[in-house]
Write a sequence for this structure.
């Protein structure tokens, strides 16, 4: 078998050109710290030869498994499959992570060329009848194999993955599955490219100083820096959240705000980067996929492998949250509207007015504003404070390593070390927005954890955001929301860094989608803990801690608009479920979504606005029929944090317990088992409702 494999790989080397292989940093990497990628050496022309070579190698590895004349065993079939395709995984991960962080028109075109090849390979594996027979043979012997817990889970997952990828379909159905999966893959990629292009296509340049005079200095400075970076005069607003939201919050110019808001909320609705047809077709293809496997709708197919298990549970969960809080959310709107009217606003408060009057009311009620807060959340100090939190809870340290190659000057890399100095992983941090980077904040991995021949292969984790950029006058000063977001994504990073286990597909964040948000959302709770704010909230100029009075105002204001914020998230989950519980194709996306969101509507409806056309989480980000998971995880985290409060928010004992029972276990056990092992009981939705309404 080894001879055949090597022949196949050597043939691939000839096909792609030996020189291009030997000099390709994606295939033959130099001596780097921990084997981290050599980003500075990777050029666009390296990708396709690397993909071709890695695909040929992966196919050869699969052929070796299929053609093995020995009887199928756990080792020669299940483990062999788990270990195969390592180079392909390496090349694909680097390419697609960078396509989200540092893309270009050429890279996006290459993604459209590469994606079909990867989907074709995946389908060739999953629909291979000989390979399926080997997997099925091992699975049918499972009771007599004396497998440990992790091995049994890998076998179960491998078997289920084959079934859910079409292995049991007849030949005609398999061809249908190929067509659907290939088209879905291409459409999802096109969807995300359209969102990025539409985001970058809009900007509003202001040259009249009187139109920005009312804005806080930090907003004006950021807008001026954006204008300068674009070669423009004056001040510029973009659709990047860190740039757009402060403008909507502090500007009283309704005409300009409406223009910006409409541009953001109608992205990809018609025009050059139209996603209307993509949304319809993706939803339709997912429905076809569900029917192919005998499910009524796509959500039913997806939820079979989630904590919620079925659409009835999810819809009941969302409705429980909606019905308990909708009247309070509408009361929030009426309260802010009444305040605006009292303050001289003789108009209906529209969505583009909301942030402005919301902020005005908050200042009047709680006697503080973002200008008071931001100087205490200087990014570098926040980062160090979060590092301190991780050290106190888990005993780990973060040491910047300038020898590690990075893919952009904004990026910094850190060695993550255990208390005894053992290497835990690498953490890349990429904080600022740019035209080549998708919006939002996220955690990802350049390498995930596994154990090979008794040696742990530790992960390379990346935290990406679009936080407020530094200006000529000030360092990066975060809003409180950005501070919370940092904590959220850092929680995901810890989940990846603490991974333990043998098999990559079971470690780290390889858990049910409605459980993966627990480690991130539970960490947000520290944002309003006085003891932690004393560490992290330090004035960037004076070095003084945030005054207790201001700190207490922030904590008190977190309850402000809690019902509205809850309904907003419930609305997103409701829209997601609507798209994925259709039983027939959607005719009109705009009308469909308006109907789907009607029960959660709090602010006035605006013609032309649409969530779905830029809803990357569900149409290109893996959260289809899963966005409810954010609220689901809030139920878990509201209950989980109670134990931290009982034992102490810096309790090493509680931190180690959370690490051992939740963060390090990956997907070896059912999430509820992990949660109960940590907390001692199952959570209840009412705890979250009480938290929102109290």
């Amino acid at each position: 078998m080894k001879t055949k494999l090597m022949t196949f790989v050597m043939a691939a080397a000839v096909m792609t050109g030996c020189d291009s292989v030997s000099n390709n940093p994606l295939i033959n990497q130099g001596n780097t710290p921990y084997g981290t990628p050599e980003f500075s050496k990777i050029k666009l022309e390296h990708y396709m030869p690397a993909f071709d070579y890695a695909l040929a190698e992966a196919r050869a590895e699969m052929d070796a498994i299929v053609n093995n004349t020995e009887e199928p065993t756990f080792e020669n079939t299940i483990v062999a499959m788990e270990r195969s395709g390592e180079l392909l995984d390496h090349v694909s991960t680097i390419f697609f992570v960078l396509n989200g962080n540092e893309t270009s028109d050429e890279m996006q075109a290459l993604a459209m060329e590469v994606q079909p090849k990867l989907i074709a390979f995946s389908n060739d594996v999953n629909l291979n009848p000989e390979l399926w027979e080997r997997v099925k043979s091992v699975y049918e012997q499972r009771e007599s194999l004396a497998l440990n817990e992790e091995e049994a889970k890998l076998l179960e997952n491998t078997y289920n993955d084959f079934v859910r990828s079409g292995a049991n379909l007849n030949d005609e159905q398999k061809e249908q599955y190929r067509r659907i999966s290939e088209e879905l893959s291409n459409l999802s990629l096109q969807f995300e490219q359209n969102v990025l292009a539409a985001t970058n296509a809009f900007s509003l340049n202001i040259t009249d100083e009187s139109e920005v005079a009312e804005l806080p200095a930090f907003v004006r400075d950021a807008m001026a820096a954006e204008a300068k970076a674009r070669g423009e005069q004056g001040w510029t607003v973009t659709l990047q959240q860190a740039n757009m939201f402060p403008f909507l919050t502090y500007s009283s110019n309704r005409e300009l705000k409406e223009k910006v808001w409409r541009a953001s909320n109608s992205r990809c609705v018609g025009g050059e980067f139209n996603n209307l047809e993509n949304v319809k077709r993706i939803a339709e293809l997912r429905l076809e996929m569900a029917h192919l496997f005998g499910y009524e709708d796509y959500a039913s197919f997806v939820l079979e492998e989630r904590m919620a298990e079925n659409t009835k549970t999810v819809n009941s969960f969302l409705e429980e949250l909606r019905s308990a809080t909708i009247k309070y959310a509408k009361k929030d709107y009426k309260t802010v509207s009444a305040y605006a009217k009292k303050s001289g606003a003789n108009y209906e408060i529209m969505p583009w007015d909301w942030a402005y009057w919301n902020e005005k009311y908050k200042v009047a009620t709680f006697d503080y504003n973002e200008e008071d807060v931001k100087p205490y959340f200087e990014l570098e100090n926040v980062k160090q404070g979060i590092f301190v939190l991780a050290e106190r809870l888990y005993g780990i340290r973060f040491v910047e390593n300038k020898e590690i190659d990075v893919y952009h000057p904004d990026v910094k890399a850190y060695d993550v070390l255990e208390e005894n100095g053992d290497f835990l992983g690498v953490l890349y941090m990429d904080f600022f927005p740019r035209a080549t980077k998708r919006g939002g904040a996220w955690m990802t991995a350049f390498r995930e954890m596994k154990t090979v021949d008794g040696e742990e292969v530790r992960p390379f984790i990346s935290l990406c955001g679009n936080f407020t950029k530094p200006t000529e006058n000030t360092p990066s000063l975060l809003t409180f929301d950005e501070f919370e977001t940092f904590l959220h994504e850092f929680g995901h990073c810890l989940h990846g860094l603490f991974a333990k286990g043998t098999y990559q597909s079971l470690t780290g964040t390889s858990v049910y989608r409605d459980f993966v948000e627990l480690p991130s959302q539970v960490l947000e709770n520290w944002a309003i803990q006085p003891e932690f704010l004393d560490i992290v909230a330090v004035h960037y100029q004076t070095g003084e801690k945030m005054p207790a009075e201001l700190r207490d105002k922030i904590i008190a204001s977190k309850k402000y608009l809690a019902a509205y914020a809850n309904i907003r998230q419930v609305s997103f989950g409701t829209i997601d479920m609507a798209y994925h519980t259709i039983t027939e194709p959607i005719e009109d996306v705009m009308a469909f979504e308006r109907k789907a969101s009607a029960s959660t509507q709090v602010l006035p409806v605006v013609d032309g606005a649409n969530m779905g056309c830029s809803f990357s989480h569900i149409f290109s980000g893996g959260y289809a029929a899963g966005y409810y998971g954010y609220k689901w995880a809030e139920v878990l985290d509201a209950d989980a944090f109670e134990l931290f409060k009982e034992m102490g928010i810096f309790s090493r004992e509680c931190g180690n317990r959370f690490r051992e029972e939740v963060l390090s276990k990956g997907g070896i056990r059912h999430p509820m088992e992990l949660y109960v092992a940590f907390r001692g009981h199952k959570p209840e939705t009412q705890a979250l409702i009480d938290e929102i309404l109290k």
About this structure: The chain has 29 helices and nine strands. Residues 202-265 form one domain. The longest helix spans residues 311-342. The CA atoms of residues 219 and 246 lie 6 Å apart.
